[in-house]
Amino acid sequence: MGRVKRARRLLKDFELDCLLIPPSADLLYLTGIKKTQSERLFLFVVPRKGIPCFLAPTLEKDFIKSSTDSCLIFTWEDGKNPIFPLVDILEAYGSGRGRTAVGDELWSCHQLEMTGVLRRVQFVSASPVMSRLRSVKEPAELQLMRKAARLTENVLASTLRVITPGMREEEIAAIILDALGRSGLDEPWAIVASGPNSAIPHHNSGARKLRRLEPLLLDIGGTYKGYNSDITRTYHVGPPERKFLEIYGIVLEANRIGRAKSKPSVKAFQIDSAVRDSIDKRGFGEFFTHRTGHGIGLRGHEEPYIVNSSAERLRRGMTFSIEPGIYIPGRFGVRIEDIVALTDKGSESLTRFSRALRIL
Predict the structure, then answer these.
(1) What is the pLDDT of residues 137-150, one digit of tens each?
(2) Strand partners, 219
(3) What are phi and psi of 223, to 5 degrees?
């Protein structure tokens, strides 16, 4: 429970009395328990002082016992209001009238009832605490992310060998999803965007058929033991036009600049600015329509976010994407995305698949 101890130390730093964590990536991080949120209130309660505990439906008690033996368990029965046992817990911990941080995934119906009953408690978001903990990855976490990246890249390589003109986007996506699942990755996903659809950053793969003389954008990933992978590469079917080659080169250079700029002590906006400036000076700034990157770990998108509004100073062990893109509406788009992990001297690219333009 070393992570719980660190969380409790942060409660003091943030002047918080208690932390309430519902089923989420935060719960998995702190306890090792993976659970889906439901209408039945389930909370991991971490007080600044006192023994952490669970508040859960009676029917979940054996599940918790089988998952951990280091915490107290308080239960509530179906048909009764779980908020009142929560009141008793917070009062016992001396947290009945202070500041309590709540995980973002808590359903609004539970939060609203808590707010209505616990009028003396000031509820705030637990994100500042949990992002401080989770954004810096432990060596074991980085190993899992490296493994997730390797498995994903293997699927990308095998997929490229079977893609041919005439295949539908959804057909290619199905091949990718099946291969990701068979490789050992959970929760697989894929964006397959051909031709003008590649200019839509979050395109939903559809029935459009892949044609010669047009691009194909593949953005894929999954989870390995809870940790996410994410990679994007853009290809071309047959000889590309000069404009595509120009834009591909600009995005490739922006990707290189972003990875090179990624170092401890650098502020997030400095990376975004470096990447964005490299595209803007070539005349395509208006077509780079999203942030440079997002953190990744137990969630596909988490802190730190590499955006121009973030002054967060990055630290060794942080993991995030570098994914510049240029999207020409109605014509084509190019995105090259890699995941980097900050090291003592710079960054390690967890994704290593070739970034050179490949003609299919």
Answers:
(1) 999 999 999 999 99
(2) 191, 232
(3) -125, 140
- For 191, what's the count of Cα atoms within 13 Å in the CB-facing half-sphere? 18
Q: How far is the C-alpha of 74 from the C-alpha of 95, rounded, in Å?
A: 17
Q: Which long-range contacts (CB under 8 A, 24 or more apart) does 168-176 make?
A: 168/206, 168/207, 168/208, 168/209, 168/210, 169/193, 169/194, 169/197, 169/205, 169/206, 169/207, 169/208, 169/209, 169/210, 170/205, 170/206, 170/207, 172/205, 172/210, 172/218, 173/205, 176/218, 176/220
Do 103 and 21 form a contact (C-beta atoms < 8 A)? Answer: yes
Cα dist from 22 to 48, 83, 130, 160, 177, whole Å: 18, 14, 13, 40, 29
Matching residue, tokens 């041919």: 164
Q: What is the mean pLDDT of residues 312-320?
A: 98
What tokens were used for 181? 């699942």
> Residues 289-293: contacts with CB within 8 Å, 24+ apart?
289/201, 289/325, 289/327, 290/201, 290/323, 290/325, 292/258, 292/322, 292/323, 292/324, 293/258, 293/320, 293/321, 293/322, 293/323
Q: How far apart are CA 304 and CA 313, in angstroms?
A: 9
Helix H segments across 161-304?
A: 169-183, 242-261, 268-280
pLDDT band at 97 (very low <50, low <70, confident <90, very high): confident
DSSP sequence for 227-259: EE--EEEEEEESSPPHHHHHHHHHHHHHHHHHH
pLDDT over 90 for what percent of the chain?
89
pLDDT at 1: 65
